[in-house]
């Protein structure tokens, strides 16, 4: 009896909160009865124009959503007849006069029925998710968007996943792909992954790491990849593979991987044929070559274009593309890594096959918390360029720190490259206009995000990082959406619809990136030094390569701080248009967020803020770390409005973030002080620990 009471007590105290698995596709019952009834009147049935797998997926998703949101079971019917008061999911190629076929668009209208029209089934699927989003965010169905077309054609996730289940720079568990079980066992989770991506309009996924294993091109692994492709296909998602350039040697037994060697070319052509036999809608290849020790065409005296064009030739009979990465730099102590991609790629403009797109990271270095845009954008008019963003938080605090990334993506996309010069009538040539092809009339357009998903039950480790996957996908579809609108939408769909809490959380999200930059890399500092990229190590000076040390980037000395990239230094600024150079060239007028990216500034120099460099740095480090305390207080206020499990999870992560923000602050301040020789300005207290203390702390993360 006593044992029974104990058991009952235990059960009653266990509360199972939201585990985050459903992401933004939660479909919980709308609490407002009147609103529910109003919506319900529009959903007497779901009619489909055909029963293709993709249309049936759309219909079933809508059925699932309506069941949850409205508590109403809505039948799926295959003949609309003269029925009214329902939804008609209509795929019809004749709409091509109105909706761009190539671009997966859809149209919606609400009259006697709600109509979702598209040329392709996938367009209907996207429209269906948009309709659900309308309901999830409590919007009226009378003003559905008439036509909605994605601005970019290929919208991809890049997974940096390895054969052994690890993920390069992944912080949410193991890989989603269970290679050892595939193809016989197909985890139902793959379908939920596809649903989530389709809900955003993501239409492609590269399943393996850019530091690729040749294993993926073996017959054994291609079968596994094909099993995944089968799950993704009815959600409009094509599969792509990262390839290891010397694969013809490693698994083909050839003596060379020279892209101009006929046998090598034949090997790739045969391999590609084999792939398309298994995966008829295979998307193509992603390649990291001659970068960070990865082999490539330059090993044979050939160019990036020679390598890319060879793969394009192999893909010629099929509807596939080559995404060739521009992330390259060499271990040259005299060079500025900033300049490498521009130097290697601009001479090749116009030399790439029409099936090749060059994939460029948003900044010239490497996914820093804040970077200027890559000078390649705007300087390759004859070569389609695609954007590579990093969603996984390699440099923005792993799965612990709360950093909403939409402002990082937007900042880059909205920057003017000044290709048209100043005050041009076309109103500026933004990075987005390069990426969406409108600036140079690119024949194809693409955008990629390095995924932050993993095997953690909630997909992204930190529940708040789901918003980054979401924001990337929404911006890949439409880069004109604002960070705020996307955050607001995501919060309502994922966390709460209580207006005050929505406002508080949206505000937190919008401020989170700037707060992170302040305590991590303010005023244009960067930190791509080698290692796991977790612990602060601004003192790191030993490495096999100079550009894999910290001192290479910040250049602290007794005079000042920052990398001189003007004509007196590396002159990287010359890679930008004159108008951009003008903005950043003069340390007096260079905006503070970019100052140390381009200038070596004396410690005592007065900045536009009215403070000296040293005082400004300290102010940023201290207010940044303090602001995490503010984030904690703000988050505490939304407790009644969000799920208890998610609330507790984020509360814990914020506590760690606060501790680590102070650690970053102390590390930078104590280290830089050895050069500046300046006191910590009032009113900030001196760090409670010494430089040796913080160094010891960072060493812990290197222990085996
Ligand atoms: C860097 C990562 C490294 C990647 C590389 C890349 O530290 O793990 O392999 O980028 O993008 O940011 O290839």
Can you tell me about this structure?
The structure is a single chain. The protein has helices at 2-13, 33-40, 53-70, 121-136, 189-200, 219-232, 247-250, 262-278, 304-315, 340-345, 406-413, 431-435, 466-477, 483-494, 499-520, 551-554, 578-585, 595-598, 613-637, 644-676, 691-700, and strands at residues 46-48, 76-77, 87-91, 106-110, 114-118, 147-148, 154-158, 204-206, 238-242, 284-287, 321-325, 356-361, 385-390, 446-450, 560-561, 601-602. It starts with a helix and ends with a helix. By secondary structure, it is an alpha/beta fold. It is globular and about 80 Å long. Strands 7-8-9-10-11-12-13-14 form an eight-stranded parallel β-barrel. Helix 3 runs parallel beside helix 4 and helix 19 (613-637) packs antiparallel against helix 20 (644-676). It has three domains: 24-148, Chitobiase, domain 2, CATH 3.30.379.10; 154-482, TIM Barrel (Alpha-Beta Barrel), CATH 3.20.20.80; 517-563 and 600-701, Alpha-glucuronidase, C-terminal domain (Alpha-d-glucuronidase, C-terminal Domain), CATH 3.90.1330.10. The chain binds beta-D-glucopyranuronic acid. Beta-D-glucopyranuronic acid (BDP) binds next to loops.
